[in-house]
Amino acid sequence: MKLTKERIVDAGMATFAETGYHGLSMRQVAERLGAHAGSLYYHVHSKDELLALMADRVCRHAYDAGSTALAALPPEATWREEIEVQAAELRRSIQQHPGGALLLADSPGALSTGGLSLMERLLKTLLDAGVPVEHSGIAADTLLSHVTGFVLQEQTEPQTPTVTAETYAALRARFPLVMEQMPRLGQNEKFQRSIKLLCTAFETLMKNDDSRA
């Protein structure tokens, strides 16, 4: 089958899911495609370019999914709901790509159209909602970083330590807030609450800006 940039990105995504950032090599991608490594460079010039293309694909998927979700919102939807669906679709898109969160976190910074599209739309949502211009960039970046970090934890192999009743009692006595008062939530509810908390923080910026007017 003829080599194309899309096929190389497909193979790169599959290889990355197995090896991670540092283990990925153009040779491994070529082997997965049954091709010589040198033939890949005609389409993709370096590992960094491949990583950028892979990250861009995840972002483009997230942007398209977000567009569909936003279009499905009722006309009276609030800016909070618009933020929530964008965050939810980004999380879902990253989850659909094994190692996707690690890819976005570890890949070199690049001006990808997919990533810029996500940021542009999020900035517009925040600015239209009334977040001051001087805070909107940090607000958008914080939200995107939070979603990536959240999924990174989800995609990391969980390690559940064995805790005896005696150990648990000692920990509860020493760290009562952590052991007793923090709610034990499922990942979906924890994610939804975390986005709502961020939206509340963004709303505070709007109120502070109004008070100075």
Automatic annotation (TrEMBL):
SUPFAM superfamilies associated with the record: Homeodomain-like, Tetracyclin repressor-like, C-terminal domain
GO BP terms: negative regulation of DNA-templated transcription
DNA-binding region, residue intervals: 25-44
InterPro entries in UniProt: DNA-bd_HTH_TetR-type_CS (IPR023772), Homeodomain-like_sf (IPR009057), HTH-type_TetR-like_transc_reg (IPR050109), HTH_TetR (IPR001647), Repressor_TetR_C (IPR004111), Tet_transcr_reg_TetR-rel_C_sf (IPR036271)
PROSITE patterns according to UniProt: HTH_TETR_1 (PS01081), HTH_TETR_2 (PS50977)
Origin superkingdom: Bacteria
A Pfam entry, by short name: TetR_N
Residue ranges annotated for the HTH tetR-type domain, each copy included: 2-62
Keywords in alphabetical order: DNA-binding, Transcription, Transcription regulation
Keyword Transcription annotated: yes
Annotated protein name in UniProt: TetR family transcriptional regulator
UniProt organism field: Streptomyces inhibens
